[in-house]
Amino acid sequence: MDYKFKLGKSIYLVILFVLIIGLFLGIFNSTYILKYLPNKAVIGVKDDETSIKRLSGETLQGLNQEEYLILFNEENSSSIQLKDNIAQTLAYMKKKTKAVTLSNMPHSLAQYKNVVITFEEVSALPNIPMIEEYAAEGGNVFFAIRPEIKSSLQNLYRKLGIYEIGEFVTPNGMKLTSNVLIKQNQLTLKNGEIPENSSLSVGLDEKSTIYAESIDHIPLLWDTAYKKGKFMVFNGTMLEATENRGVITGAISLMNEDFMYPIMDMKVVYIDDFPAPIPEGKNKIIYEEYRRDTPSFYQDIWWPEMQKIAAKYDVKYTGLVIQSYNDEVTPPFKKEMYNRNTFVQYGRELLKMGGEIGIHGYNHQSLTVNAKAVEDLGYHPWKNQADMEASLNTVENYVRELFPNYEIKTYVPPSNRMDQVGVAALKNAIPSINVLSSMYIPDSVEYTTVHEFDQGEGYIHFPRITSGYEYTVQKKWAMANAVTSLGVFSHFIHPDDILDDGRSSKKKWSKLEKEYNRFMREVHRDYSWLRSTTARNAGKQLTNYLQADVYIEEKKDRLIVHIDKFSGEMHFILRTKKKIGKLESCEVQKIDENVYFVKAKKAKIELGLVE
User: Fold this and answer.
1) CA-to-CA distance for 462 and 452, rounded, in angstroms?
2) The pLDDT of residue 33
3) Of 49, 234, 246, 369, which is the most exposed, with the fewest CB atoms less than 10 Å away?
4) Nearest to 384 by CA among 407, 367, 365, 406
């Protein structure tokens, strides 16, 4: 018997339905449709307007900022560098400083909150008895570098808690025996994981409190009471480096009974080169592990994992666009055709997560006319400012074409290098940009663009502090120092770090993903109070922080804080062994032993302290 195969009506309906869905998805995912879909994160983005509250002239007349005296040796470059680093650290804490050379040492120290000594030649002090008397009467003195070996200073060394002194040594790493860095008690670094440190081999009396020591038990940071005051000693030579400012902040905080300072309080994570063209084809290491070509790996593996980490650990990404990876530095700049649908999809998903799209460049050629500045990178210098501007206009138009309602606010220089010609080109080409993010910690490269968290050249400088997917103790050290001193976590990664043996240390993504997950998990666990934000919003918050003036009155049973040019909320770190009592116009959260996070809700707050 012959049977004829017939398709039922329901089968035709299913096929028709599948075709309609496929057609719909094709249209939906087209560049034309994607870029015009409404997106709350894109349309109508504006910086929050904040009203600034000024204290009255009468109130300001009755307020004073306590002053910190920094003594330095003008003939010693290391002393000058250490002085500058401590002055900058205290400036971030809104503390008033006065730097004085040995030859201009004041005749009285009574008016100073603390005295900081930044040179090892203690015998050069014109009046050592005055330092001792200052401490005896209740003053606090911080020796920020290990002192010299001199028999004539034995009497002073006893007062510093030293009963035995040997030779200069290179200590074996460092172990924190306290929370001098917030949430980092017992953090241990081996030699090579911190800068080389020259110390004195010393024995301390039992009255001294040790806050850090080497792995071989050489005391590196301690204090000792002297009558009504206190001496704090750092037994090393590494505090002149930017990455160690948290130790300076922690030491000064621990030296004082009730110590409070404002912080910026921001967590920002940048993805450089994202969105950007993704290499076609297969990467051998990625294909062996995931059986995917490179674009599929980023879409199916890398980006979902980055989204998951953001959701788990409260991260908002700031992505920095690269339009092309060509090396052109002379116009005209081509609009090379890549998979624009993928570009738009990544951008839209980034914005939906509460993230930001900024600009890295038309290509990855650093904006400099100096050939030497990019010689080691194999880059080309630009001929002039006009060519730079043409390239910037090209990438700006590209972003505006794909995201028509989006205003660009953030720029990150490729390879963190940019000269003054590049700065001028950026200002002319894309005037909407007001946040410039390069590097905070200087490296060994002369031409790296390094900024403080400040304003200059018409920009808000919000630099990056740490980078990469790898988990290292050095990275944790830099992060913890910045959080302790500034209240800032600022980190960046590249999607293509995975494809580069140098930047990935030849580790596969399965390994790097675990290390990055661990780093972000620890940051979230230890510093959950940090405000996660984008670079554009961080710029606004930094502006509010920089313009505010803070006055702190210390009473026996309370602290009274006045904030001039108050923007609606300001955050502080408080170290005290006392219990927190009655609060006025603020919120307090304990974040570590004897360490509190304080939110000021008004321009004047009070915190009760109970013995």
Assistant:
1) 8
2) 45
3) 49
4) 367
